[in-house]
Amino acid sequence: MISTHKILFTNSNNLKVIPSKSVGLVITSPPYPMIEMWDESFKSQNAEIKEALENDNGPTAFELMHLELDRVWSEAYRVLEDGGIACINIGDATRTIGKRFQLYSNHARILSYCLERGFGSLPPIIWRKQTNAPNKFMGSGMLPPGAYVTLEHEFILVLRKGDKREFRTSAQKLNRSQSAFFWEERNIWFSDVWDFKGTRQQLNNDKSRNRSAAFPFELAYRLINMFSVKLDTVLDPFVGTGTTTLAAMASCRNSIGVEIDPNFQEIIESGIDGVAALMNDYIQGRLERHLHFVQEYEETKKELKYKSKHYGFPVMTRQEIEIIINYVRSIIKSNDNEFEVDYLDEPLLKMAESSSYDQIRDNADLLNNKTSKPQLTLPF
Ligand SMILES: C[S@@+](CC[C@H](N)C(=O)[O-])C[C@H]1O[C@@H](n2cnc3c(N)ncnc32)[C@H](O)[C@@H]1O
C-alpha cells in the first residue's frame, strides 16, 4: 500500500486544483479571528480589516475576518465527497478593543456559516487546554460583576456533507473493516471532552508548535482514524507545520496540505525527515496499549470472545477482527512538495520475518494464559 502527500503553497480560499467531491475528510485549524497573533495575516488579505481595527471597531473586524474564512469553508464543502466530514479546531477570542472587553465567538460564527453552506452538524468535541495558571483571572479580580471567566477550552466542530457515507462494494467494506479502531480506543476517542494529559507521543516538535499554533499529532491522528478510511484523501487547508500531513502518513491516508506562507516549507520538510521510526513507535504503542487492555480486562472481568485475524490477540467485538495498523516502510520525496509513503501491507507475514512478530504472538499467548505483562519492541 502506498499513500501520496502534497503540500500546496497558496491561498486556500481558491482550491480549484482540487476536484469537487475528491476529499474524504477535512481536518484543520484556521488562524483565529480576533486573536492578535493572526491580525497581520488577516489584514494582508483585506485592507478594511486593518481599518476596522484601527477604528476600534471590533465587531466589524471580526465579521470581515470571518468573511475571509467563509471562502475556505465553502471550498472545503465543494471538495468533500458526499458523506465526507470536516473537523474544524477553533478557539473563541476575548479582547479589549477601545474600552470594551468582549468575547468573539469564533466557533459560533463558523458553525453558523457552515450550516448555511449546507453542512450538517455532528456532536462537537471540547478540547480542554491545560493552563499553566489555573487561577488566572481577567477583569475586576475579586470584585463583582466585572470579573470574567477564563477560556480554557477550544472546540473541534464536526460537520458532515450530506448523509452517512456508504460503503457498497466488498472491497470498500473490507477496507473499512481494516481501518477500524479498538473498542477501548473508541471509548476514549468518542468522548466529547478531550485533554491530552497522559498521551505520550508528540511527533511535531515543541519549538514549531509555539511559533505556529500547531495542534498535537494525537489530535489529528485520532480525527483521521475516527472519520476516514485508509487511502481516503485528507485535506488541511491551513496546514501550518504539517501536523495533519504527518498524521495522514501514519494512518495510511493520502493528504493535501495547503499553506499560504512559503516559510513553512522548510519546517514541514524537516518534520517529515526521519519521522518514519517515530510513526512506527506510535503504531507499536497502539498495539501495546491494546495488549495491556486485554490483559487487564481478562484479569478483572472475563475472557474476550473474538480474536484478531491478523494479530492473533483477543478483541472485544466482531468489528475489530480485521484491523490492520500498517507500519511505515519508507517515506520518500517524490517531487517538489510531494511525498510517497510505503507501508507493510501484511503485518503478520512481514513481521514474522523479524523477531518482534513472534514477540507479539508470544505476548498474545501469554495474555491468553494470563501470565505475564506484555513487553513489545519495535521491529525497526
Ligand atoms: C492555526 S495555524 C495551523 C497550524 C496547523 N494545524 C499545525 O499543526 O501546524 C493556521 C495556518 O494557516 C495559514 N493560513 C492563514 N490563512 C491562510 C489561507 N488563506 N490559506 C492558506 N493558509 C493560510 C497560516 O500561515 C498558518 O500557518
CATH topology of the largest domain: Rossmann fold
Spatial ordering of strands, largest sheet? 10-6-9-3-2-11-12-1-16-15
The CATH architecture term of the largest domain is: 3-Layer(aba) Sandwich
Question: Which spans of ≥5 residues are poorly predicted at pLDDT below 50?
Answer: 348-357, 363-380
Shape assignment: globular
Sequence of secondary-structure elements? EEHHHEEEHEEEEHHEHHEHEHHEEEEHH
Number of domains: 2
Q: Report the sheet with the most strands, covering strand number, pairing sense and barrel closure.
A: 10 strands, mixed
- Distinct small-molecule ligands in the complex: S-adenosylmethionine
What does this entry look like structurally?
With 380 residues, the protein is an alpha/beta fold. It folds into two domains: 2-272, Rossmann fold (3-Layer(aba) Sandwich); 276-377, no CATH class. Helices cover 39% and strands 23% of the residues. The chain contains 13 helices and 16 strands. A ten-stranded mixed beta sheet has the order 10-6-9-3-2-11-12-1-16-15. Strands 4-5 form a two-stranded antiparallel sheet. A hairpin with a 2-residue loop joins β4 and β5 (100-104). Residues 348-357 and 363-380 have low confidence and may be disordered. The structure holds S-adenosylmethionine. S-adenosylmethionine is lined by residues 11-13, 29-31, 41, 212-215, 237-238, 240-241, 243, 258-261, 264.
